[in-house]
Amino acid sequence: MLTLTEIAEDPLVLERRLDLRDGTEVVFRPLTHTDAERLTGFLEGLSPESRRLSTFAGYDLAAARELCDAIARYDKLRLVLEEVPSGRIVGLLELSLALTPADITRYQEAGIRLAETTDCRFGPTLADDYQGRGVGTLALPLIADVARRLGRTRIILWGGVLADNPRAIRYYEKNGFQPVGSFAGTDGSPSLDMMLDLDQVPSAATSPTRHCGS
Ligand SMILES: CC(C)(COP(=O)(O)OP(=O)(O)OC[C@H]1O[C@@H](n2cnc3c(N)ncnc32)[C@H](O)[C@@H]1OP(=O)(O)O)[C@@H](O)C(=O)NCCC(=O)NCCS
Q1: Going by C-beta distance under 8 Å and a sequence separation of 6 or more, which residues neighbour residue 149?
Q2: Which residues form the N-acetyltransferase domain (predicted)?
């Protein structure tokens, strides 16, 4: 089983290339310590609506540095989508190997017992100009493979999904996530819990390149 430290030491172990239908190439890879400036560009470029739908602690160099400094230090694995050849970061896909007491309680109320060692949390954010182009769907089997290699069997949504985020809900549904229940987020926003059983996702590990729509 892969560990966060091993990934930090050899990020290439998770690197894959994705070919979008329009010919754009994107590299899927772990965030590295040298990404702070490029990650700043990604965070700064997020529109107010994207920031509402997917919230970060900040959207500047300090916030980006914090995310880079956190590599292999806590329970988080952050993967980026890097546009080729510009090197621009166009997506940040976050996995957390820890669960919160609130997650555990909400799922318990829905009759699901979460397990610290085999469940993980997922939160995806794409640059505005990359949303709705199928990129999230193309990357999901790669995320599923990473989660499996970390010993996980199920993925839940990190903080749920806002009930007024129809694109994300459709994205999760079409990629096999099942609705679990609804709850009020920390600011009272209506939100939904959804869960993916990794047995339902085909493995992407056999091919180093994935094509949109394939
Ligand atoms: C959510 C997100 C990761 C999904 O990735 P994506 O690449 O945009 O998703 P895809 O293009 O693969 O799929 C989106 C689906 O939603 C559909 N869709 C788009 N807008 C929609 C809307 N307003 N209502 C319903 N469905 C919508 C698309 O048609 C597509 O479904 P289809 O293939 O059946 O036609 C991305 O849009 C994103 O980063 N959004 C902003 C941040 C965010 O919301 N993050 C999630 C927080 S929980």
Answers
A1: 1, 2
A2: 26-199
CA distance 149 to 208: 16
Query: What tokens were used for 102?
Result: 């609130």
How many other C-beta atoms can be found within 10 angstroms of the C-beta atom of residue 57? 9
Separate counts of helices (H) and strands (E) for the chain: 7, 10
User: 200 C-alpha vs ligand 1 centroid, how far in Å?
Assistant: 20
**Does ligand 1 lie within 6 Å of residue 151's CB atom?**
no
Domain range 4-201, CATH architecture: 3-Layer(aba) Sandwich (3.40)
DSSP structural state of residue 59: S
Which DSSP string do the residues of 15-44 spell out, in sequence order? -EEEE-TTS-EEEEEE--GGGHHHHHHHHH
For 151-204, how does the pLDDT look when each residue is reduced to its tens digit (9 = 90+)? 999 999 999 999 999 999 999 999 999 999 999 998 999 999 999 999 988 887
Mutate to test the pocket of ligand 1, among 22, 167, 211 (most ligand atoms within 8 A of CB): 167
In 3D space, the residue among 62, 17, 39, 12 whose CA is nearest the CA of residue 211 turns out to be 17
For the chain, give every domain's residue range: 4-201
